[in-house]
């Protein structure tokens, strides 16, 4: 889209000023809590192996490199080196993600709390949102409870074949052979997310197949879950957090499984980040971490329906 | 015909869905942070006019629909079909009552319309945005009442009924916006 009239920003000057205020309020929040800011690299030789996240490739001095999809690996290397509580407020990149709520380059707030679990971190997410939206309603529920409430199906116990039929009925035949995790995501995004309450909804105990980099555990009813949570602000996915996996061997297994899934879906191979694994072997402290989309937060503060309205220049204008 | 992938779906693109030609109105990428991407797509079924919403897995493809909008002149109605002509080639097309639809209320012979062809056959007809038609039936006009508000129904030569100001009379020609059915102004007295 090379329209010459797109030299102008997508934001109004009022939103640009609010963006600046929000960035400094976020920094104040962590400064008051003695969490230090770290500005980790955006360009790295390594990247995520996750089959659903594609990195933008770059080159430096004949070395293949990637723009980072989140600051997670660098931050964990700092944590393993003894940084203590840290946050990063900077850019992240994801290949080909453009839309009303997506831009391939976006602003991500990510922070880690040593010795905390995911429930303590959920409290802090709610406190942070309340600074910007005083009096906001906060609701917490487990993934299983919200899934059963809306779809009358236990997401942890339902057969894969039944999940696939539900996904086919919701979308198309293309889901007939999909993985458990992808079917669950489709159903949650299409059938549940739009029905969530106003305010901040924190959903915890995600299915074990969606653990990503969270610890796995059993819930009170003996079901396998992951200690992962997501925050939805007015029905928009805003934040994703974990009680972080600290076991290097299990992390290596998960990378290998990601790579297998990438091969199955004909995606470009990605080498696992050996420096992250080495850091975890040397010892990642027990911690909880969360990433929060700052542009989407601004969209909610402004009542904007497009991410283009809260960024100086979204991809179409770049 | 070729296929289009979800990342090529744009507003206005014509595709086949369940055997019917559809026009894409809106395509939104949905991508959970850690999940498989999909697209929420709004389409208008060009046969029924109904708007529907479908979810596609990103990368899914739909067949392109052979749908073309063509300017044509309305010639006549022979009782069963409405006949339109392409002005350049003089090629004539017969549209069914179903395809003509609501355009029926506004069509005068010689008007230029947009005829949407699907596999070469008229699927729908869009009348000109503005038409000028004679009033054939209305209450007598109130002389001197040109400034006051108020309106009355008037039946036009094509059968449409529109609201017009009180001062207008039978036999006068008015301009109407066919998209809203609203009176735009008096053209002239007959």
Automatic annotation (TrEMBL), chain A:
UniProt keyword list: Aminoacyl-tRNA synthetase, ATP-binding, Ligase, Nucleotide-binding
PROSITE patterns, per database record: AA_TRNA_LIGASE_II (PS50862)
GO molecular function, one term: tRNA binding
Any one Gene Ontology BP term: lysyl-tRNA aminoacylation
Pfam families according to UniProt: tRNA-synt_2
Domain Aminoacyl-transfer RNA synthetases class-II family profile: 16-312
InterPro entries: Aa-tRNA-synt_II, aa-tRNA-synth_II, aa-tRNA-synth_II/BPL/LPL, EpmA, Lys-tRNA-synth_II_C
Keyword GTP-binding in record: no
Catalytic activity line of the entry: D-beta-lysine + L-lysyl-[protein] + ATP = N(6)-((3R)-3,6-diaminohexanoyl)-L-lysyl-[protein] + AMP + diphosphate + H(+)
GO cellular component labels: cytosol
Record's subunit section: Homodimer.
NCBIfam families: genX (TIGR00462), PRK09350.1 (NF006828)
Name of the protein in its database record: Lysyl-tRNA synthetase-related protein
Organism the protein comes from: gamma proteobacterium HTCC2207
TrEMBL record, chain B:
Protein name: Elongation factor P
Keyword Cytoplasm listed: yes
Post-translational modification N6-(3,6-diaminohexanoyl)-5-hydroxylysine, affected residues: 34
Family to which the UniProt record says this protein belongs: Belongs to the elongation factor P family.
Superkingdom of origin: Bacteria
SUPFAM superfamilies: Nucleic acid-binding proteins, Translation proteins SH3-like domain
Keyword Protein transport: no
Any Pfam family hit: EFP_N
Alphabetical UniProt keywords: Cytoplasm, Elongation factor, Hydroxylation, Protein biosynthesis
GO annotation terms (biological process): peptide biosynthetic process
Domain Translation elongation factor P/YeiP central, first and last residues per copy: 69-123
Molecular function (Gene Ontology), one example: translation elongation factor activity
